[in-house]
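Q: Hi! First time doing this. I have a protein sequence and I read that you can turn it into a structure. Is that right? Here it is:
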Amino acid sequence: MLVPRHQPRIACLKHLVFWAFAIALSVVPLGAQKGTPPSGGSGGTRGSTGGTPPVRSGGRTFDPGMQPQPGFGVFGPTTQPLPKPVVIEDETCLPWDLPDMRGATVSAIRLGVPSKARGDYEKACGAFKKKKLTEAEQQFRGAIEKYSNYQAAWVMLGEVLQNEQKMNEAHDACSQALVVDPTYLPPYLCLAGLLEREKEWGELLTLSDRFLGMNPVGDRYAYYYSAIAHFHLYNLPAAQKSALQAIAIDTEHHQPGLYFLLAQIYGEQGDVVDAAAQIMQFLKYNVVRQDKEAAKQYLAQLQSQQNAK
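A: Yes, that's right. Below is the predicted 3D structure, encoded as structure tokens:
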């Protein structure tokens, strides 16, 4: 039987359609699976037995493994912005001047403070400012019971205990805040204040070196405590160097006491002229009348000693 001449053309067309359909099947899933793990990975591939099965909704099949594609309303981005976390600045309760910490990156630890714990903390801060130490201690302990990683509460508890002359407990409280996060500055300042009060100059010098380099605010305090420690250890050149470094950082004169400290360092070296210059700076920026009177008396004493020579 003779084959019609047009039949080979029909067969060829069938082959072309078959291969076009095969190519489409091989390409479309790859495009749909863009961004999914390769075959054999921990996430599996879409359509495998270990993946998430498709879900039918409203006549459509929605595959959870499929990446959202632009231009499709069903997979388009949400129009509602994510709410920003609200963080109450716990550092406003602390007794140090920490301006740069207001803009510091908020840690997950701070974001995790429950509202009840924060409520106790705020009550304790109010009591502390009114010098109601017993009440403040109870409230800070209550905040810590509700959230054991509450760093600011540990630090403030240490400050309260220090004012209550409970030095060992104060050391423990300040140190606990460091256990939670060694990059948090206030517990270092809490411990430094304790060591200064206890006149542990060697330990104070070691601690000041430990948090030096953390941030500009921390460096200012680190150099300040280093200067105090060196001064009392009678290492006057090192004390002078640290005090000058602290003053160089304190461009806005948040700590006028640095000038008085430097004046005392110069005074111990017999440099009355430079000591007097630092006293003038201290009187310019300090606002506490009693401190000003003490500085004037110190300068008068230095000048009297010089005249007696």
